[in-house]
Amino acid sequence: MRHATLWLAPLTALAIGLAQPALAAPTTSAGPVLFDPAGLKAMAADAARYPLFAEEVARTRKMVDAAIKAGIDVPVPKDPGGGFTHEQHKRNYMALYGAGMLYRITGDVKYAHFARDMLLQYAKLYPTLGPHPAANREEAAGRLFWQSLNDSVWLVYGIQGYDAIRDTLSPQDRKNIDDNVFRRMATFLSTGRPEVFNLIHNHATWACAGVGMTGYVLHDQNFVDMALKGTDKSGKSGFLRQIDLLFSPDGYYTEGPYYERYAIQPFLVFARAIDENDPGRHIFQYRDGVLLKAIRTTIQLTYDGYFFPLNDALLDKSLRTAELYQAVATGYAETHDPALLSIAKWQGRTALTPDGLEVARDLAAGKAKPFPYASALFRDGPEGKQGGIAVMRSDAGDTGEVLVAKNTAMGMGHGHFDKLSWILYDDGHPIVTDYGAARFLNVESKEGGRYLEENETWAKQTVAHNTLVVNETSDFDADWHAGQKVAPTQIYFSGDRPTKVSTAEMAGAWPGVTFRRTLVQLPVAGNARPLIVDLLRVHGDKPATYDLPLHYSGHIVDLGFKLQSHVTNRPVLGKANGYQHIWVDGTAPLDAGNARMTWLTDGRFYTYRMLPPAGAEVILGQIGANDANFNLRREPLLIERVTGAKDATFVAVLEPHGAYDPSAETVVGDKSNLAAIRHVRTADADLVTIDFVSGGSVTLAIADSADADAGHHASLDGRALDWTGHFARFDTGVTP
Amino acid sequence: MRHATLWLAPLTALAIGLAQPALAAPTTSAGPVLFDPAGLKAMAADAARYPLFAEEVARTRKMVDAAIKAGIDVPVPKDPGGGFTHEQHKRNYMALYGAGMLYRITGDVKYAHFARDMLLQYAKLYPTLGPHPAANREEAAGRLFWQSLNDSVWLVYGIQGYDAIRDTLSPQDRKNIDDNVFRRMATFLSTGRPEVFNLIHNHATWACAGVGMTGYVLHDQNFVDMALKGTDKSGKSGFLRQIDLLFSPDGYYTEGPYYERYAIQPFLVFARAIDENDPGRHIFQYRDGVLLKAIRTTIQLTYDGYFFPLNDALLDKSLRTAELYQAVATGYAETHDPALLSIAKWQGRTALTPDGLEVARDLAAGKAKPFPYASALFRDGPEGKQGGIAVMRSDAGDTGEVLVAKNTAMGMGHGHFDKLSWILYDDGHPIVTDYGAARFLNVESKEGGRYLEENETWAKQTVAHNTLVVNETSDFDADWHAGQKVAPTQIYFSGDRPTKVSTAEMAGAWPGVTFRRTLVQLPVAGNARPLIVDLLRVHGDKPATYDLPLHYSGHIVDLGFKLQSHVTNRPVLGKANGYQHIWVDGTAPLDAGNARMTWLTDGRFYTYRMLPPAGAEVILGQIGANDANFNLRREPLLIERVTGAKDATFVAVLEPHGAYDPSAETVVGDKSNLAAIRHVRTADADLVTIDFVSGGSVTLAIADSADADAGHHASLDGRALDWTGHFARFDTGVTP
Lengths: 736, 736
Prior knowledge:
about 725 residues; alpha+beta; Glycosyltransferase; 3 domains; 12-stranded antiparallel β-sheet; 5-stranded antiparallel β-sheet; 18 helices; 27 strands
């Protein structure tokens, strides 16, 4: 009843046409505060001048005009993700944001009126709302949406739309909307949900961004201070602390690429607002400019525009996403880095802001430069000491061969139990894959669009990744809170020479188990693409079963081993920890002579050749067992298995070779050019030798020590090998 | 030994440098005969002028220059498809053809010399060859290749290259190559392989084209006559008879789209040569211009540039293929149809001939018009009376919704047992699929690149298609010779109104069984894409099990029925006829209320809703059982099954709906808008009614008779329905 009274008051005032001067704070302006007047003026003046921006205006006009035509619909919240009320409130904040920006651009008051009228309806509805009826136990309930995260997103968009039209309102309407929509919402999302707001987590970033911007727009410093420093304003939480703890010094965001993409919008949008209203904070220079680094790092963690699907991630998520249009525009306005223009060009979109206008203007002026995709280590952890992602690229383009070693820390609740896993891309395709998340975003029939149960039972589990599994259990027993406490150590990385190397070590993922993995991207004369060399050494304190899965994308064309196949009755590999989801196609004992499999992916052959530990077997399988609801994609995998060993060394080479051209009907190089892999353990190093069918060999010497100055000596095939530092490569008679 | 003597003679003559005037026929020119001098002159003059042609010259130069640099290699034949000698002889004919054309274009004698020197090596090798060592029993052995078909292709390319440089040769070289390469090859492929040459089959077309063009180049009328009318010159076989029997009046080629693509090259190339040398034959006007129709029909039978994968077909085969570059160029030179230019543009390629120059010239001049993809019936059979392919398109583009009803005759040995099957495309994707062929073309480890055993055990079988299966056996008991004798009847087709309809009937595919199928592409107000309505009525003379499989591409998001799942031990559906390759995921009893499945393909939802016959059940499964060699793709299928019925009517609607946008993270319309399907059988017709959730209904009235003037009457829901002709549609209160 208190709420009802509140929203009736202004309406009554409006009805009787009385001015209520007390409603408008006399010392503050009602005008836009999130962008400077000059920028807004330029945006309005040149909106039609540059194609990318003009298209954005046209697109937004179409969307908002349709919303105006359809009539305002602010339904009582009811449905979960994907349901009507969920989608309608999403449409509303987009329309509100769009209407505000269009009003600034076109000056057409119909947009301001539409935004006002919609917000007046929210001013009626919002005060009446309690917790959302479709809320669940895992996520904090919102009011408009099933989880408060979506309410925060509403606020981030809504406050920007509101800022753009607030100066057009009557004082009564302004106070009504200030009080009954934005102040209430910001209050709910801060002091009303401190358990979210004070997290060091992207959900809190969205909340802080919404609340903080509301503070600027409503000239309410309390909201700004809480947003920056937490509800207690101690600085132990809040936006600044989030920047401190959620990013590494390299701009890597702890939850991984997919969530970095998601989190970057509130970080950048709020930073932009801070920069506008509190320029003395130099927020873009904060922590050595980490927010601007984060934009570039987010882009680096993509292939052909799609995010590396590490941790909880949807495979179809690319740089073409609202968060990144904003981030790229803001980043460009701050840095004028021409490489960001080529990203905007690929996106084909930009933000409907003064920053977006700059992007469109400079793109039209031909200032774009190719984005320099790099072989680099992106360290994880606030101090960069919790492992990292090692990206090794065959070239500076985004469709070459890219090897990604995932040596990061847990990454909180969306992290996967995938310590020291890897993936590989080539020729525009995933080759060695990561399942990503088990989720159909916003598809209501799939658990309301939320993460599926199979995200826990399969996608997060270690066996769903390309890394060591001990005794059919996952890292940290699949407890992310435990995983949060220990991170891998990145022993070595080299990305600036043709041969690229990453070595990392993990201890504590299983009690008593330590493993170390070196992944090498190895160009060899005569091979169109570099080979991938994988050396994984595990030490355990008691005998165990070690599995090394390989998830590949392609069609098997040749097997070196003779498979004992289950062709008429397909068993399941295990009972739990993801193994319950694996159908077994067949198994075979492995030896050094037979341990290879060749598959075809689009136009190229890939041979995975193992040097198996003694007694190893191979299991070929497919995902999809115990999946009555068809929640999983039916993808193939290979598992190399050793049982009863304390120590084991897995060596493998993945060799891209040949070409299959369906247009020309030609095939070349469908046979592997590897004759053998050999491995020798010396006193302080591993030697991996690859012998080629066409003659010659390459030996990789990998020392235990990462000391760049330490000398090492070994002898192989009667030849002395001497090198300094962690890694060396010795070529013998390799001919193109 | 006879061969050895023969090839020694010219060498000896060469060695002693004697002129041998008797070798050159005094009354014939050595100059090019396959293209007219004016065309060749224009091609040389303007080669660099038009981008498409200039790129073709550059590409060919690169290929031929590399071949020249690598040195001539004419190996003794040894390997099967994909192996070195196979690929080298393929490379040789391409290089030979390219060198000839480049010589004509550039005048650079190095190309003529290269072609000459390579042919002189063939002149040494060829006479020594017997049957190819890798030949198998199924295909006629070649000499250079494992099957004589490839030898024919060699000759088709080789003779064109030779024609272009023949006037540069010394009389001795010319006679040597004439006699020891081309005359021998043409002799071998005609009188030496009459069992192929006299077939009415694409293998014979390639042979006739090679032999006939050799006849023109060598001025040997005997070869020309045999090529046109068979080895006995009776006209019962040979090229003209092939045109008569292999094409329907609509230009449909009996083996289907994939083989039409393949066969069209020798048809067009030889026709072009005939037109040049025997213009009085008016070969392009022959049979009402069927060869030119065939070009357009080949293009019509594609989606997004890829051939409908009916019969034996590889999914990755598109219009970007050498055969079609030639065909489009020749077709354009004959017709100047600007729609063919847009195809050349999509191909990005053209022929290196005077015809290709015309294409490049007119494309550069901006004369291209969009190719008018049509809703049309392409009749099968020499007289158009053996069924056909009914293509129903939502629009004239090539990425809309396309429904294809495959009501053709057998199509010889590459035909599938798929009577009255259908496929569907939408938004650039296959939605309801055809497996195509089980083959990895030229991939040696997959049975030498030949058709796999699974092509017989799976891909050709009826259950691998979207059509009726009786008692788990295939049409004609999977005997194509039997299938060749009976064809479906296309009862009705209407493609020129918004609602598109195909009705066909098949009798004799199983003893005592007749079935009739109507497929309708049904636009409905408010639905972005037309619905597909499927009515299949079967009558058998004894109780049987009727299966109706649906092969779909997408991920299941919702099931109307409660599946009894085999989630921990996956059984195989059957023992033979393709059923041995189906894993069973689960089964469920069906009723009118629950019989629906929704899947997601890229950005759209598809709901398949059945009106099941009494007692029907559904089986969900996946391909891949009894496939120890991983020869099959692991794709999903649904089977609707009725047991113990003589007569059954299957009614189903496939409804594309909604949108999933991963960039914008929005989902709309993920729920079906169908409330129910109803079916009523009247005295002489079927009524199928679709009731919509949003209100209203559409009733399709499908009369047994195809008589366009026959009147029909029925009553439904107390309302009288009267219509004339086979098909009518009654909308009631359907609102957008």
